[in-house]
Amino acid sequence: MPHFLTLVSAAGALRAKNVSARELLGEILDRIDSDDRFIRAYSDLTRETAEREAAESDLRHARNEARGPLDGIPVAVKDLIDTTPARCRAGLPHLVHYRPQRDADAVTLLRQAGAVVVGVLETDAGAFGTRTPQVINPIAPGLIAGGSSGGAGAAVCAGLAYGAIGTDTGGSIRIPAACCSVLGFKPTWGRVSAHGVRPLAQSCDHVGPLARTVADLQAIQAVLDPLPREVFETPTRLRIGVSPDYFGDADPLVAEAMALVVSALTRARHSVREVRMPLPDAIMGSHMVTVTREAAKYHTEQFPGLWQAHPDIARDAIEFGRTVSDADYAVAQARRRQVADAVEGLFSGLDILILPTLPVDAPDRDVETVRLDGCEISVLEATIRYTAMFNHTGHPVVSIPASRLPDGRALSVQIVGARHNDQRLLAIARQLEDILAVTVDYGSLARAAQMNVRRLRRRYT
Predict the structure, then answer these.
(1) Within 10 Å of residue 320's Cβ, how many Cβ atoms?
(2) CATH number of the domain that 131 lies in?
(3) Which helix (DSSP H) or strand (DSSP E) does residue 290 occupy?
(4) Which alpha helices (H) appear in 303-388, and where do they start and end?
């Protein structure tokens, strides 16, 4: 199926003139028309501008003047990110008619690189959640698609785009990547401009890509990150840190997957050693204080008289954030700096850290809590438990499928690198992708799940 080509393969076909940008776009739009009425990954399409962009790309390819690997490639953008001429409502009812006057910086860079922007993708209300409940997981309809970039994870997984751009404030790229068995990259904080992105918590917000291979992530990130490329060599024998205490409360299925990953890396003659690092609880309290305080400031200033009508999850967070004192916020930031320094210090003797992305498999879409280490905690708390720390430390993180499940899906790990070692981290992730060799047949899984997807959509409408 052409829509399940990797982005890099599609770019090669365009370069060889074996396919046109208009043909690639047509395939994607046909699939959206047939399947997205059930999956609901897209909140709005930009057909006319996409068709124009594809036609312009074909002219460049005909003249051998393509702008790079993204030229002519259909991609999509989370609707928290200003994308003209789409409605970018950020999951908030009062923004249902909002159409930005200009593109966010990240979208401008995509379009300058020749990418064909197909439309914008669903998010949790204001990006406050990790479920994106209006989206159905294309390969596991009974499980959440993850969030808040749930539309992005589902679109990439279902072949409705060759890549997508999401945002990540507590794990919102990596969580849907894990739930949908695709890949996601949260860059070093500040490397990708968030100008034109509706904030959740500005000091934790990151913008980054989701795709189906590391090479595809690299192609998109090279466009999004205009900072000078670092000069690096990828070591043949990696120094890898694992912190079992960090995921000591993980579900046995996740712990077993981590053991398999460590075994595979050891067999590949990489150096894997246990390290001590701050535990998830070292940052969770600071996370809630920081995110809700910063979100409350933004929403009460930007939407006075309107934020009270936000969906429950957003309104409750804002109401809590309004109670956070200056002193509490200052304590949270001091703690944050301590944790960031402790994590960065690990990389004096390591190339990467490897940790699970989630403490459990993707939760059931009908549950509000999951059981973790003998305790019932909310799905939100569970899904951000292993991811939120790195939003506060600012380290780059790749989430990749690492252990195949019996049903063909995969459990995911996070690969963490030193700050501003983004390209090096992606190059290492590509090495690990080859070693772990976890292949997800998205097309077959989506076809097998199609009837259940449709049943669920009828149930929830």
Answers:
(1) 16
(2) 3.90.1300.10
(3) helix 281-302
(4) 312-321, 326-346, 379-384
Mean pLDDT computed over 304-325: 96
- Of 186, 219, 251, 248, nearest in space to 400 by CA: 186
Rounded CA-CA distance 306/450 in Å is 38
- Which residue's entry shows tokens 């305790």? 375
For 73-129, the pLDDT digits (tens) are 999 999 999 999 999 999 999 999 999 999 999 999 999 999 999 999 999 999 999
Three-class SS state of 202: coil
Rounded Cα gap, residues 340 and 5, in angstroms: 38
0.90 exceeded by the pTM? yes
Is the peptide bond between 85 and the residue preceding it cis, with omega within 30 degrees of 0? yes
Domain extent at residue 399: 2-241+352-459
pLDDT at residue 73 in the model: 98
DSSP string, 106-128: HHHHHHHTT-EEEEEE--SGGG-
Q: Determine if residue 305 is left, alpha or beta; phi over 0 gives left, psi from -120 to 50 gives alpha, anything else beta.
A: left
Handedness of CA 164, 42, 173, 406 (dihedral sign): negative
Question: Measuring CA to CA, which residue among 283, 289, 288 is closest to residue 324?
Answer: 289
pLDDT of residue 459: 78
Query: Among positive and negative, which fits the CA dihedral 266, 269, 274, 278?
Result: negative
Cα distance between residue 291 and residue 336, in whole Å: 12
Distance from C-alpha of 448 to C-alpha of 360, rounded to nearest angstrom = 23
Q: Which two tokens stand for residue 133?
A: 């409940």
DSSP letter assigned to residue 251: -
338 found inside a domain: no
- The answer to whether residue 302 is domain-embedded is no
Residue 249 belongs to some domain of the structure: no
β-pair type (42-45, 410-416): unpaired
Q: State pLDDT tens for residues 395-448.
A: 999 999 999 999 999 999 999 999 999 999 999 999 999 999 999 999 999 999
Residues annotated as part of the active site: 78, 148, 172
| Domain count across the chain | 1
Model pLDDT, residue 320:
98
Residue 368 lies in a domain: yes
Residues 191 and 420 sit within 8 Å (Cβ to Cβ): yes
pLDDT at 3 over 80: no
Beta partners for 356? 413
The residue type of 61 is: H
How far, in Å, CA of 386 to CA of 400, rounded?
14
Yes or no: say if 153 and 20 are a contact pair by the CB < 8 Å rule: no
